[in-house]
Design goal:
The structure holds 2 protein chains of 2 kinds. Chain A is an alpha/beta fold. Helices cover 31% and strands 21% of the residues of chain A. Chain A contains 27 helices and 39 strands. In chain A, a hairpin with a 5-residue loop joins strand 25 and strand 26 (373-379). The N and C termini of chain A lie far apart (78 Å). By secondary structure, chain B is mostly beta strands. Chain B has one domain (8-114): 3-layer Sandwich (Rieske Iron-sulfur Protein), CATH 2.102.10. Chain B contains no helices and 12 strands. The chains are: A alpha/beta, B mainly beta. The structure holds siroheme, flavin-adenine dinucleotide, iron/sulfur cluster and FE2/S2 (inorganic) cluster (FES). Flavin-adenine dinucleotide binds next to helix 1, helix 5 and helix 8 of chain A.
Chain lengths: 838, 115
């Protein structure tokens, strides 16, 4: 029947429906119509331009549609496409070849494209129109659900299929008691076999969703609004709202009205070119019925858009039956089914793996000759989904023991060599029809190095997003083949290395976590990125830590070290370990007054343990009055500068190591870094201060000082290396300034200087080039930045002691002045100690 | 089906008593309840204050955050994380579920549902 040929003179195309598939069609058509000669008009019924329905549930997250839009504001105008929103087409006149919209617009067309999608099916039962009954399809639906959810405690979702479960999870996230009602004996009956569905049910029940199987809803009841639902077996369930997800019905009303052929159960009948019974009218997406089938997924819809765009511009693509494999995208519930999940079509032998401890069920159907993978089901662990799907779709030969695929551990199943073994033509992103070759080429030719970049460059992963893990593997493997390093990222919220974030924060003058998230991140942060950003902000601006209290690790938040049982310890700064008798007495008196356990630390200070949270400001106040200030035993910061007694007393001493240690500690105190920094100064080569085990070690020589760097005690001891010999004090300080600033700017989180140096490309020689020989020309800048940061130093305890508002944060309860009644101590060697934990 | 338990709402504190994107602990009879204001998501949560890992009264002082959009709190002691929605421990299958309380805001006060 195909007879349409592209005519060079301007043609008029009208699109009905502006959702995922309608929009994709506009994109594809303009892409091919390079000369901009086609006159395109689009009618949408919804109030919003096309948005990502697949990720609709994310609307609940920030209650805004902005992130869901498929195009930037002004995209249609910039592409010269006329768009009418909130203005559905109400009539098609096939003989005059025009459409009439609700507002009375009459638009002639040469070709008409129906992308009217589908609507949720509302079973014809009593009460389906009650207030409190919803469907789950559009942003407006979700908006109404939200409005009701605030006033509800319970929600019942009718339908335990893919969409119903997604809706149920959303209801649970809205903190409603959630019930799922399914009339068949198992969940997701179209995708899962009985065992798989049982495993899924267990998972969901763990999450707190209540599942009712074999329940046919016969009525929804209530006085004006939903109060309960009734089932065919005469039982009932109280609920405040109902979300119906009982399947979809293609929107073919316009097609029927103008006499196009439709299927017995709905859908506009199309041929392989997606032409309807009128060759000038096409249908694509969820309203199209191809070979008796409605394709309720976005990937085949996009494929249809491509086929029609091709045909209207002289191409001759055709649509063929499309893979319907699916992966449920619920957090915490991994479920996938692919190929022929039940093995209905071909003789096969299934291999089944069940792990009831971890709720994992996997089934793969293998062809009888053992060579091909026909399909399968994964519940609880879908790490191998993409690889299995590719093996199945590309008909790759299976290894001799295919059962091993099922045992692969989570890491193992990433199977790096696996992705590279795929044929070039393997379709990785089926939504956008992107092949493995396109992805690898983008890495090689255009230097794409992460999934975000790949999305922008090729659109891979912009549809349902299911292929992203595989896209990432392909990027990483291709980079590795090219000998490139794989990018470090902080966590799911920041796709940057710490070094990049440090630069971004500094350059853009970012001062808060929220601003950092807004400018360079996604989502809302976590316990990994919050302290990292806190540390960067502290290093960059040396702002008061407590101003950013809720993003700090707990010791930084309370400026003291938390101990077993919930009490805290205080370690006043004692620079160089030198202390007067009066100060010793002051510490003793304070310890006595508050009944604190005392211990001399390995860092030449005195640790006072067992303070209650509300006592901290009082203890600090007394310490400050006695001349002490914050000792950073907490915080990824400069800790102590240890010293030996040095030339003042020691018969071997060459210079005043105590004096220099004190100078260094006073200079660098409070400096925050990717990890803690320790220093020591020894008066001679006997090295009583153990300087060669520190991040920065200084040892007196006949002619000056030797500077050692990047040593480490702790879990993986490493000797410091000699960096410069016989230099004077000023030079020591210049080098330390530069070195520490360079470390702060470039190290990954929680990396001590030793590990940082071990990983630094070019190693010690490179570091000497940068710090001593100034090959990067940044020495002055590093020193300036260090100076700026250090000049902002302020005793953190003092800030709290002086601010009634900050002091208020140091209580156990907000609604009472009582200390935590559960804290208790016992006596040991004449001091108090916390009770051991269980 | 259809059990209707009576909820008793306890007025815990003023909304301003809870730091933005942080938590506080409140006392209700003999219970300690952690209240969190996930300000950036405009959400409030309440859980038991006790971390089941080593039985420490501490969760209110934990960092809150999200993973794949599931809100969670990390215990300050060993950074085990718990879902604020289900109470499940996300970092270890060995650690017990924590109790989640219903919470609501009315006239700038935070109310927690206590049995
Ligand atoms: C108090 C003290 C032990 C003592 O009683 O002597 C101590 C106590 C703690 N050390 Fe330490 N370390 C102490 C000296 C040391 C030393 C010795 C030194 O500094 O000369 C080392 C080896 C040197 C080094 O760091 O390279 C040391 C290596 C560690 C490590 C391992 C670091 C590493 O790179 O492997 C940790 C763990 C960490 O930081 O991640 C650690 C962590 C800790 C923590 C913070 C563990 C924790 O999170 O609770 C302890 C805090 C106790 C508290 O609340 O006060 N502590 N710790 C010492 C305090 C010194 C001070 O005055 O500040
Ligand atoms: C919550 C949810 C989750 C989903 N998850 C997935 C998933 O993970 N993977 C996947 O592949 N698919 C998923 N889907 C399905 C996917 O969203 C659909 O397959 C896809 O959006 C279909 O696009 P469409 O443009 O054909 O139809 P629709 O999205 O239904 O769009 C049709 C549009 O046409 C408009 N319209 C109808 N009649 C007229 C008229 N007369 N005039 C003007 N406009 C009209 C409608 O208002 C609508 O905006 C999900 C769907 C939902 C609801
Ligand atoms: S060595 Fe271990 S136990 Fe001892 S203080 Fe350091 S961290 Fe604590
Ligand atoms: S006590 Fe909470 S994680 Fe260990």
């Amino acid at each position: 029947m195909k007879s349409n040929r592209f005519s060079p003179s301007s043609i008029k195309v009208v699109v009905i429906g502006n959702a995922m598939v309608g929009h994709k069609f506009c994109e594809k058509l303009r892409e091919r119509d390079v000369l901009n000669t086609i006159d395109i008009k689009v009618f949408g019924e919804e109030n919003h331009r096309a948005y990502d329905r697949v990720h609709l549930s994310e609307y609940f997250k920030d209650k805004s549609i902005d992130r869901l839009y498929l195009s930037k504001t002004g995209w249609y105008e910039s592409k010269n496409i006329q768009i009418y929103l909130d203005n559905p087409v109400v009539e098609i006149d096939r003989f005059k070849k025009n459409v009439i919209s609700k507002s009375g617009e009459v638009c002639p067309y040469d070709y008409l494209v129906l992308a009217t999608g589908s609507s949720p099916f509302l079973p014809p039962i009593t009460g389906n129109d009650l207030f409190g009954v919803f469907v789950y399809r559009t942003v407006d639906d979700l908006e109404m659900i939200l409005g009701r959810a605030y006033k509800s405690k319970k929600a019942a979702v009718i339908g335990g299929g893919l969409l119903g479960l997604e809706a149920a999870k959303a209801m649970l996230d809205l903190r409603l008691e959630t019930h799922v009602i399914e009339h068949s004996p198992r969940l997701m009956p179209r995708q899962l076999d009985e065992t798989g569905a049982t495993f899924l049910r267990n998972k969901l029940e763990h999450l707190g969703i209540k599942i009712h199987l074999n329940k046919t809803t016969s009525a929804i009841r209530g006085n004006e609004r939903v109060e309960w639902v009734e089932f065919a077996d005469n039982t009932q369930l109280d609920t405040d709202m109902v979300v119906v997800s009982a399947g979809i019905r293609p929107r073919d009303e316009l097609a029927r009205q103008c006499g196009l052929r439709t299927g017995p159960r709905g859908g506009v009948i199309v041929n392989e070119y997606l032409q309807t019974s009128d060759p000038f009218i096409y249908a694509i997406g969820e309203c199209a019925l191809y070979e008796g089938m409605i394709y309720g997924l976005v990937a085949p819809g996009y494929n249809m858009a491509e086929v029609v765009a091709s045909n209207l511009t002289g191409g001759d693509k055709i649509f063929t039956a499309f893979d319907m494999s699916t992966k449920l995208k619920l957090i915490g519930v991994d479920v996938a089914s692919f190929g022929d999940p039940f093995g209905m079509n071909t003789a096969h032998s299934p291999i089944i793996f069940e792990d009831r401890m971890r709720d994992i069920y996997k089934r793969i159907n293998i062809s009888e000759d053992g060579k091909k993978l026909l399909g399968g089901i994964l519940v609880g662990d879908t790490h191998s989904y993409n690889m299995l799907l590719q093996t199945c779709l590309n008909e790759l030969s299976l290894p001799p023991h295919p059962e091993n695929i099922l045992f692969q551990s989570e890491e193992g199943s990433k199977n790096e060599s696996g992705v590279m073994a795929l044929p070039d033509a393997a379709l990785i992103c089926s939504c956008e029809s992107i092949s493995k070759k396109t992805i690898c080429d983008a890495v090689i030719a255009q230097g794409i190095a992460d999934a975000e970049g790949m999305k922008k460059c090729t659109k891979a992963g912009t549809g349902c997003g299911g292929c992203i893990p595989m896209v990432k593997d392909l990027i990483n493997e291709t980079l590795k083949l090219q000998g490139k390093m794989i990018k470090q990222i902080i966590c799911e919220h920041f796709a940057y290395s710490r070094q990049q974030l440090y630069d971004l924060i500094k350059i853009n003058g970012i001062k808060t976590f929220e601003a950092a998230l807004e400018s360079f991140g996604t989502g809302f942060g976590c316990e990994i990125c919050k302290p990292v950003i806190a540390s960067i902000l502290a290093s960059a601006w040396n702002d008061l830590i407590i101003k950013h209290a809720t993003i700090q690790d707990t010791n930084d938040r309370y400026l003291a070290n938390i101990q077993k049982g919930g009490s805290y310890s205080v370690v006043p700064r004692i620079p160089g370990g030198e202390i007067t008798p009066d100060k010793l007495i002051a510490i003793g008196e304070i310890a006595k007054k508050y009944n604190l356990y005392c211990k001399i630390t390995g860092g030449q200070r005195i640790d006072l343990f067992g303070a209650m949270i509300h006592q901290l400001p009082e203890i600090w106040e007394e310490l400050i009055a006695a001349g002490f200030e914050s000792g950073h035993a907490y915080g990824k910061a400069v800790r102590t500068v240890k010293s030996c007694v040095g030339s003042t007393w020691c018969r071997y001493g060459l210079h005043d190591s105590v004096g220099f240690a004190i100078e260094l500690e006073e200079r660098y105190k409070g400096l925050r870094a990717p990890h803690k920094i320790k220093m020591a100064v020894s008066g001679c080569v006997r090295e009583c201060a153990e300087a060669q085990s520190k991040d920065v070690g200084v040892i007196a020589t006949e002619k000056g000082w030797n500077l050692f760097i990047c040593g480490n005690g702790g879990a993986k001891p490493q000797h410091a290396v000699l960096f410069a010999s016989d230099i004077d004090k000023e030079t020591v300080v210049h080098y330390i300034d530069r070195l520490l600033m360079f470390y702060i700017k470039t190290a990954e989180p929680l990396t001590r200087t030793s590990t940082w140096l071990n990983k630094l490309e070019g190693g010690l020689d490179y570091l000497k080039d940068v710090i001593i020989h100034n090959t990067l020309g940044i020495c002055v800048q590093l020193e300036q930045e260090m100076q700026e940061t250090l000049s902002q130093y302020y005793c953190e305890w003092k800030a709290v002691v002086e601010s009634p508002q900050l002091r208020k944060q140091f209580t156990h309860f907000v609604n009472s002045n009582e200390p935590d009644p559960t804290i208790s101590f016992e006596e040991k060697r004449k001091q108090k100690n916390p009770v051991a934990w269980v | 089906m259809g059990i209707n338990k009576k909820t008793k709402w306890f007025r815990a504190c003023h909304v301003n008593d809870v730091p933005a994107n942080g938590g506080v602990c409140i006392q209700y009879q003999n219970e300690q309840i952690a209240i969190f204001h996930f300000t950036s998501r405009q959400e409030w949560y309440a859980t038991q204050n006790l971390c089941p890992h080593k039985q420490q009264m501490i969760l209110s002082r934990g960092l809150i955050g999200e993973t794949l959009s599931e809100a969670k709190v990390a215990c300050p002691y060993h950074k085990n994380t718990f879902s604020l929605i289900t109470g499940k421990c996300l970092s270890s299958s060995e650690i017990d579920v924590i109790k989640i309380y219903e919470i609501k805001i009315e006239d700038e006060f935070v109310f927690v549902a206590c049995e």
